[in-house]
Amino acid sequence: MIVKVQKKLKSLLPVLIVILIVGAGYMYLKSKNGVTKVTAVKAEARTISKTISASGETGVPSDLTKRALIGGSIKNIKFNSGDTVKKDDIVIEMDQASLKASLDTAYSAYLGAKSNIDSYDQKITAANATESVRKRERDTAWRAYMADNGETKKQAFKNAEALYQTAVSALTVLEEDKKATQNAVYSGYSTYYAALTNYNNSTIKAPADGQLALFDINVGSYVTNGQELFAVVQPQKMLFKAEVDEADINHMKVGMKAKISLDSYPGESFEGTVVNVDAKVQVLSSGSAVVYSDVVFTDTKILPILGLSGSADIEFDKSDSVVSISPDSVFEDAGNKYVYVVEADTLIKKTVEVGFEGDEYIGIVAGVNAGDMVVTNFADLNLKEGQKVSVTAQ
């Protein structure tokens, strides 16, 4: 019987050891008096800011983008996209056949009208001379009639008066015809000048030195007046075309600083400055209403390529050297705002006054000092003032 008991106790020995270990652990934890692990961050004096986040893509200033000034078909593209071009290099030649025909017709019409003006000048000079002669003849006949009221003198005066009036009428008609012809000259010149401008605009030149970026065009493409044809890209003039939501546009001003992130440069950011805010709202295909704002890159190490997508954080307000903590550290109770501060491994509940609120941090006007360890994960735990804690610093 004793042997059986001994064997049974021996078989239960491992179980008893496990029970003793668990019990010891429990007693150890209990002896720690309920210490709770918390995450805390040191309050620091820092600069905190508010920013507007806007997506967009790289671009260039409008003066480096060329648009079609006339409609027509493209006859020749003399460079490939990505080629280096110089200012005034001819990039695109449009079909000039119809433009040349219109130019020649307009020029001929203009020269014809101008020739008519020259002939009218000669005719009017002659008509003026005739009118002067007829006036003298009329005046002489009038004096003769006044000296002798006979029927012969009277008839002579009437005849002279009629000839004079005819000369005046002829001069008047010529002068009116000249005015009409002068208007035709003006109109003819205007038509000729427009045709000449169209002809000259059929040759599109590079606006500056740089790298050519052709848009969606090919030889034979028909382009419309105002259509974008190409841009010249310069590293020192790269822009980020930020699509600022219309709800944020009241904060936007020229001169604001920005940090630009590009998908093509993961983990990097580039400094920028707002140089232009558009004066109209654009509705995107997604239905979002945005205002395009140009941010010029201060850092020019990026490749001069249009259309690189990314985002910009545009700073519109900031506060310097303010004691700040994470917004996750603040909670509200009975209308007041509080934080838990760890002092000597003990939780202290402190009333705080919140000041400037930035994107990542909030400023504390009163209640927390620089260097205080402020709990951030209070929402995950059932914390109470005076509770013993161990701190995991972030």
Structural write-up:
With 394 residues, the chain is of the alpha+beta class. It folds into four domains: 86 residues, conserved putative lor/sdh protein from methanococcus maripaludis s2 fold (Beta Barrel), CATH 2.40.420.20; 97 residues, Efflux pump adaptor protein, beta barrel domain (Elongation Factor Tu (Ef-tu), domain 3, Beta Barrel); 63 residues, Beta Barrel (OB fold (Dihydrolipoamide Acetyltransferase, E2P)); 93 residues. It is built from three helices and 23 strands. The strands form four sheets. Strands 1, 17, 18, 19, 22 and 23 form a six-stranded mixed β-sheet that branches. A six-stranded antiparallel beta barrel has the order 2-11-15-13-12-16. The chain has a four-stranded antiparallel β-sheet with strand order 3-10-8-5, with no helix packed on it. Helix 2 packs antiparallel against helix 3. It is elongated, with a radius of gyration of 46 Å. The chain starts with a helix and ends with a strand. The N terminus is likely disordered.
